[in-house]
Amino acid sequence: MPAESSAVTLVEVSPRDGLQNEKRLLPADVKVALVDRLSAAGFRAIEVTSFVSPKAVPSMAEPQRVLDLVGRPAGVRIWALVPNVRGAELAIEAGVDSLTVTISASAAYNEKNVRMTIEESIEQVGIICGLPDVPPVDAVISCAFGSPYEGEISAAQVHDLARRLLDAGATSLTMADTTGVATPRLVEDLVAE
Predict the structure, then answer these.
(1) Is 0.85 topped by the overall pTM?
(2) CA angle in degrees (0–180, nearest 5) for 169-39-130
(3) Confidence class of residue 72 from pLDDT cuts 50, 70 and 90?
(4) Nearest to 84 by CA among 74, 76, 92
(5) What is the DSSP string of 83-124?
(6) Which of 21, 31, 111, 185 has the most CB atoms around it within 10 Å of its CB?
(7) What does the alpha-carbon distance between residue 167 and residue 31 come to, in Å, rounded to a whole number?
């Protein structure tokens, strides 16, 4: 299990999260221009794309092309979101520096988002972390503060999931306020847990 750390890494996710819901398909060069500008602005960790089915998320089509075109200045880590083992294999093949895998603390949200149970998602993380040449894997716990389907999620429930993800091999954890319901008290409770 990784050593405890108080380090915080800011990962700019607008090229992936900010563009994934766009109705209009943006050309690869437009996505690349955004990444290059973020890099020039000083961001050192950028989630550039995701390796998901273009049928599920059309705006994330051509992740390999985007990665082939994007500049890679010294000191900038390129991240990609992957929903499963196949996505991780493609991202590793593309030469990303870090992987993001999202698992929801909400069973209903996890089913709707990645079409897997929480148990299946944890299993996927374990397999991904065991792949040859796997870069660091950040497990993002979505709905860490509440779910649109199940309401408030307890800090103990998130802690248990976090522990299991670290045991599965995740290098780091991110607690995501997916639905915008976190309050200072909820954040304090989760961090204390």
Answers:
(1) yes
(2) 15
(3) confident
(4) 92
(5) SSHHHHHHHHHHT-SEEEEEEESSHHHHHHHHSS-HHHHHHH
(6) 31
(7) 35
